[in-house]
Amino acid sequence: MVGSLNLIGLGVAGLGSAIAIGLIFAAYINGVARQPEAQRVLQPIAILGFALAEAVFILAIVFAFVIN
Where is the V-ATPase proteolipid subunit C-like domain (predicted)? Predict the structure, then answer.
């Protein structure tokens, strides 16, 4: 039963990470579409947000395998 719950938690973490990445890039595209000259400011912020969202998912994968 414990292994099943770990995998359910991993799936929820993956879904949350996918939603977060979608929201990050949707906001980036929206911001660049409204103000194209702000691309240099917005792009590093979007890349940082992407990296942090992926890091959370990678940590979830590691914790799922360590606990199991």
Answer: 8-67
Q: How far apart are the first and last CA of the chain?
A: 11
Domain boundaries, position 32: 2-67
Instruction: Check which CATH number belongs to the domain holding 57 and give it.
Output: 1.20.20.10
Structure-token pair, residue 40: 């240099």
Question: How far is the C-alpha of 15 from the C-alpha of 62, rounded, in Å?
Answer: 16
pLDDT computed for residue 22 by the predictor:
95
Instruction: For residue 53, count other CB atoms closer than 10 A to its CB.
Output: 19
Q: How many domains does the chain have?
A: 1
What is the C-alpha separation between 20 and 17, in angstroms, rounded?
5
Q: What is the mean pLDDT of residues 13-41?
A: 95
